[in-house]
Specification:
single chain; 144 residues; alpha/beta; five-stranded mixed beta sheet; two-stranded antiparallel sheet; 4 helices; 20% strand; globular
């Protein structure tokens, strides 16, 4: 895997951005998951889908769209928080650990084309811009 990864193209940036983070107890925290979650009445992910779905913060009726036969869905069936820890974030707000839960969260399909360039250069930055517009300071990544 390392040899395969060493040959993948990566973007080059002319400068390194720097930000001063907000204190966690004042930060708005969002979730970015690669579990291919989507609302039950929403658009499903398709094979090779490099797009994303915005999930409203209060939404709990979600479908796990991850289609790999190697992915064990048992944990998610028992507790959605395994891949989408929305209830844990709410508890952290209640405990004063974080400032707020983001109004929307982002879901990608984890099984991407080999070069993932669309995700890195197009849909990823677009999703990040939507989260930034929502006032998100920090994201919790739940990779699947």
């Amino acid at each position: 895997m390392r040899e395969a990864g060493d040959g993948l193209p990566v973007p080059e940036f002319s400068s390194t951005p720097w930000t001063t983070p907000v204190s966690l107890n004042k930060a708005t925290v969002g979730i970015v998951t690669s579990a291919a979650l989507y609302p039950a009445d929403g658009e499903a992910f398709s094979a090779g889908d490099t797009s994303y779905r915005m999930i409203e913060g209060a939404e709990r009726n979600l479908v796990l769209g991850h289609w790999s036969p190697n992915f064990d869905r048992t944990g998610v069936a028992i507790d959605l928080n395994v891949v989408y820890p929305i209830d844990r974030l709410t508890e952290l707000v209640d405990d004063g650990v974080i400032g707020a839960v983001a109004p929307r969260h982002v879901s990608f399909a984890g099984n991407q084309p080999d070069d993932v360039s669309t995700l890195r250069l197009d849909s990823g930055p677009r999703a990040a811009a939507e989260m930034k517009a929502d006032g998100v300071d920090v994201v919790l990544l739940t990779p699947v």
